[in-house]
Design brief:
11 strands; mainly beta; four-stranded antiparallel sheet; seven-stranded mixed sheet; single chain
Amino acid sequence: QVQLVESGGGLVQPGGSLTLSCAASGNITSIYAMGWYRQVPGKQRESGEFVAAISNSGSTNYGASAKGRTTISRDNAKNTVELRMNSLKPEDTAVYYCCADGLGHKKYWGQGTLVTVSS
């Protein structure tokens, strides 16, 4: 099993930026990629929007709405992944979930952290 704990989030003004962190623990050697999804509050995280992902080798991938204003990075020594997003808009308001892909097609999720973009 893998446990994921997010931190960061909260209220952000339009045009501002956010930094979210996710710490992984447990059977971390089984993880080959980590990333972020987001979902409107009250809806299932599994049907959320893909934001970004990073593999163990450092290869990154970004969702359409995140591309160009988002950076995902990973610290393998600390087993953490960080998401930085700029130029935030009200439509970026969502619960942001950290996720990890593990061996055997397993997907692990954090509890989510709410980001609200509002003035």
